[in-house]
Specification:
Strand content of chain D: under 5%
Number of strands of chain A: 3
Strand order of the largest sheet of chain A: 1-3-2
Shape of chain A: elongated
Radius of gyration of chain D: 22 Å
Number of domains of chain A: 2
Shape of chain D: globular
Oligomer: heterotetramer
Distance between the termini of chain A: 16 Å
Helix content of chain D: over 70%
Number of helices of chain A: 5
Chains: A alpha+beta (151), B mainly alpha (91), C mainly alpha (93), D mainly alpha (311)
Number of strands of chain D: 0
Order of helices and strands of chain A: HHHEHEEH
Number of helices of chain D: 11
Largest interface: B-D, 55 and 73 residues
Chain lengths: 151, 91, 93, 311
C-alpha cells in the first residue's frame, strides 16, 4: 500500500511538471510522457522513505531566509576592502540516509559560510568561510529538520 | 520597463566579463569551471530579462540552459576523477 | 505598483550578481570562490525571477519562472559539492 | 531610449563573443580552451536570441554548452597531461591561413547579392505545411531534404565511431565502465535529474509543431539525460549488438525515407499531402527524436573499449 502511495506521488509530481511545461495543452503527449517519467524516476530512485510535505513546507521559509543571508554574507565579504575571510574545513558525522546527506550538503552550500564537499568515511566534509564561527551547531539543527522531512 | 530590463541585461553581461577573466586565468580546473557556471547562471538571468522585455517564450531557452549547465558540471566531475569515468567522491 | 516591485527586485538581483562576480575575482582560493558562486549568484537569480514575475501576463509564466528557479537551485547545491570534491581530490591525492 | 539599450546590449554581446573566441584560441591551457568553448556557446545562444532565432538558440545552448562540452571534457581527460603547444614560427602560417580565409569569406559575403529572403514564401504557404512553427515547416516539409540527410549523417557518424572499436572489445558495452560512489553526490544527482530532463526533452519535441523546439533540440536534451543516467552509474549503456538499440538509431531516417517514398508514389519525393501533413510530421519527428537522442548519446560515449565487458 505504501508503495502505491509513493508511485502516486511521483505521478502527481510529473503531471504538474507537464502541466507547467505544456501550459495545460497536449494532454495526449502528456499521457505518454508522465507514466514514462514516473517509471524512470521509480526505477532510478525507488521510494524507500516517503517525503513528508508538511515539514518540507515548514522549513522552506527558513531555507529561503538563510540562503538570502548566505548571499548577503558572501557579498559583504567580497565588497569589504579588507576582505575578512578565514577559511577552513570541518568534518562531522551525519545521521541521515544517503539522499538526505546529499540534500543536506546542497542546502548547506546555499547557506551562510558553509560549503559541502560530499562525505568522507561517513563524515560530511564542510568548507567554512570563517572557521571561528560555531557552524557545527547550525548544521545539527538543519540535519534534524531534514531528518523530519523523510523517514 | 523594456529599456530598464535591457539595461540590466547589459550590466549583467558586463559583469560576466569579470567571470570570463577568471575562466582565462584559472589557475585550477575547478576555478575555470566555477567561473563557467557563473556565466551559465548569469546567462539564465540574461535570457529571462530578454524574455520579460521581448518574448516570454524565451523562457524555454533559460530552462534548457539551466538543465545543461548541471549536466556539464556532472561531466566535469567525471572527467576529473582518477580514471575519468569515476567519481571524485570515491575513496 | 507591480512596476515598482520589478524595478526594486531586479536591481537587487543585479547587485547580488555583481557581488558574486567580485567575489569570484577577489577571493584567494578555489573553495571560497565556490561559496560566491552558489550563494550570491542564486540569490541574484532569485530576486531577478521574483522581479520579472511581477511583469508576467499569466500564472503559467509565473509557474515556468518558478520551474527555472527550482532547477537552478537544485543544480547549484549539487554542482557546488561536485566541484568542491573535485578540487579537494586534486589537491591531496 | 529602448533602441539605445538594445544597441548597447548587442555591442557588448558582440564584444564578449569575439573576446571569448580569441581567449579560447589564445589560452595556453587545454582545459581552459575547453571551458572557454562552452562559455562561447552560452554567449552565442544569447546572440541567436537577439536575432529572434529561438530554435537555433535552443540548439546552440543544448549542443554547444551541453553535449559538446561533455564530449570535450571527456576528450581532455584522455589527452596526456602535457601536449606541446606549438609556439613561435609554427603559429604564423596557421594564423595567416586562418586570417586569409576569414577575409576571403568576408569578401564573398559582401559581394553576394542582397538576399531576397524566403520568409514571405514560407509565411504564404504555412497553411499547407501542417505545422505553425515556420522553422519546423521548412525543416520537415519545404526543405526536408536537409533534415533527412542530417539524420543520416548522424547515423553515419555513429557507425564511424563504432568502426574504430578494437576487435576484442567489440560486442560489449560502449565506452569505459562508468562508476560512482554508492549513495554519493554524483550517484544521487544521476538519479534525480534524468526524469525531469526527460520531461523537458519530450516537451521540446511537442513544442516543435507550434513554437520553437523540435526533433534536434529534443534529441539533444534526451541524449544529455541518457548520458547523466550512465555517468551516475544508475544504469549501464546497452550492448552495441542489441537489436532494439540499432532499430532505434535507424528508425528515424528510415521512417523519414518511407514517408518520402510514399510522397514519390504520388508525384513528389518527400512531398506531404497538406491534409495528412500534420500527423505525418508529428510521426516523423517523434521517431526522429529518439533516433537522434540514441545516435548522439552513443557517439559521445564512444565505441566499446573494455574486452572484459563481454557478457
Amino acid at each position: 500500500m505504501k508503495k502505491h502511495a509513493a508511485s502516486a506521488r511521483r505521478v502527481i509530481f510529473f503531471l504538474v511538471l507537464w502541466f507547467v511545461l505544456s501550459e495545460g495543452e497536449a494532454l495526449l503527449v502528456g499521457a505518454a510522457a508522465v507514466p514514462a517519467a514516473s517509471w524512470l524516476s521509480l526505477r532510478l530512485l525507488p521510494a524507500t522513505r516517503p517525503i513528508h510535505l508538511l515539514p518540507l513546507l515548514a522549513m522552506t521559509p527558513n531555507f529561503l531566509w538563510r540562503s538570502l543571508l548566505g548571499g548577503l554574507d558572501v557579498g559583504r565579504r567580497a565588497l569589504d576592502p579588507r576582505m575578512p575571510i578565514n577559511p577552513g574545513w570541518i568534518r562531522l558525522p551525519v545521521d541521515l540516509p544517503d539522499g538526505g546527506r546529499v540534500a543536506l550538503g546542497g542546502e548547506l552550500s546555499l547557506m551562510p559560510g558553509t560549503l559541502a564537499a560530499g562525505t568522507d568515511r561517513g563524515r560530511l566534509l564542510v568548507h567554512v568561510l570563517d572557521k571561528d564561527q560555531d557552524h557545527a551547531r547550525m548544521i545539527r539543527i538543519e540535519e534534524r529538520r531534514l531528518g523530519s522531512v523523510s523517514g | 520597463m523594456t529599456s530598464w530590463l535591457i539595461s540590466l541585461a547589459v550590466l549583467l553581461l558586463l559583469s560576466l566579463g569579470g567571470a570570463l577573466w577568471r575562466v582565462w586565468r584559472g589557475p585550477e580546473p575547478a576555478d575555470r569551471m566555477i567561473a563557467a557556471q557563473l556565466i551559465g547562471t548569469g546567462g539564465v538571468g540574461i535570457v529571462l530579462l530578454l524574455a520579460a522585455a521581448t518574448d516570454w517564450s524565451m523562457i524555454d531557452v533559460a530552462l534548457v540552459l539551466a538543465l545543461l549547465a548541471a549536466v556539464a558540471a556532472v561531466a566535469f566531475a567525471k572527467a576529473q576523477s582518477a580514471d575519468s569515468v569515476g567519481d571524485p567522491e570515491e575513496e | 505598483m507591480a512596476d515598482v516591485v520589478t524595478y526594486f527586485m531586479t536591481a537587487l538581483g543585479l547587485g547580488f550578481y555583481l557581488a558574486g562576480t567580485v567575489a569570484v575575482i577577489r577571493f584567494p582560493d578555489t573553495y571560497s570562490r565556490l561559496h560566491a558562486l552558489t550563494k550570491a549568484d542564486n540569490v541574484g537569480l532569485g530576486f531577478l525571477i521574483v522581479g520579472i514575475a511581477f511583469q508576467a501576463d499569466s500564472w503559467m509564466v509565473v509557474a515556468r519562472l518558478a520551474l527555472v528557479w527550482g532547477l537552478a537551485l537544485m543544480a547549484a547545491g549539487i554542482t557546488a559539492q561536485l566541484i568542491a570534491r573535485t578540487a579537494l581530490q586534486r589537491q591531496s591525492p | 531610449m529602448m533602441a539605445l539599450a538594445e544597441t548597447g546590449f548587442d555591442l557588448v554581446l558582440c564584444a564578449m563573443i569575439a573576446t571569448t573566441a580569441l581567449l579560447a584560441i589564445g589560452v595556453r591551457d587545454q582545459f581552459g580552451a575547453v571551458v572557454l568553448f562552452v562559455v562561447y556557446s552560452v554567449f552565442l545562444g544569447l546572440g541567436w536570441l537577439r536575432l529572434g532565432a529561438l530554435d537555433i538558440a535552443l540548439a546552440e545552448v543544448a549542443l554547444g554548452a551541453g553535449l559538446t562540452g561533455l564530449l570535450l571534457f571527456g576528450a581532455h581527460a584522455r589527452l596526456p597531461a602535457s601536449v606541446p603547444v606549438p609556439s613561435g614560427r609554427a603559429v604564423w602560417p596557421a594564423a595567416c591561413a586562418a586570417g586569409g580565409s576569414g577575409l576571403a569569406l568576408g569578401w564573398a559575403f559582401l559581394t553576394l547579392p542582397e538576399p531576397v529572403g524566403l520568409q514571405e514564401a514560407v509565411a504564404a504557404n504555412l497553411g499547407t505545411s501542417g505545422v505553425e512553427n515556420p522553422v519546423t515547416a521548412v525543416l520537415l516539409n519545404f526543405r526536408s531534404w536537409d533534415t533527412l540527410i542530417e539524420s543520416i549523417v548522424l547515423l553515419a557518424a555513429l557507425i564511424g565511431v563504432w568502426s574504430v572499436a578494437r576487435d576484442d572489445a567489440w560486442g560489449g558495452q560502449p565506452g569505459l565502465r562508468q562508476h560512482a560512489r554508492h549513495g554519493g553526490v554524483l550517484a544521487n544527482f544521476g538519479r534525480l535529474l534524468p526524469p525531469i530532463g526527460f520531461m523537458i526533452g519530450v516537451y521540446l519535441f511537442w513544442a516543435g509543431s507550434s513554437k520553437p523546439g523540435g526533433a534536434f533540440q529534443a534529441g539533444t536534451v534526451l541524449a544529455a539525460v541518457a548520458l547523466v543516467v550512465f555517468m551516475g552509474g544508475a544504469m549501464r549503456p546497452p550492448l552495441v549488438t542489441a537489436r532494439w538499440l540499432r532499430l532505434v538509431c535507424v528508425a528515424g531516417p528510415a521512417v523519414f525515407l518511407a514517408v518520402g517514398l510514399t510522397g514519390a508514389a504520388s508525384g513528389v519525393f518527400l512531398g506531404l499531402r497538406p491534409d495528412l501533413a500534420k500527423p505525418l510530421i508529428l510521426a516523423i519527428e517523434a521517431v526522429l527524436t529518439f533516433s537522434i537522442a540514441a545516435s548522439l548519446a552513443l557517439s559521445v560515449i564512444g565505441p566499446p573499449e573494455d574486452p572484459e565487458d563481454h557478457v
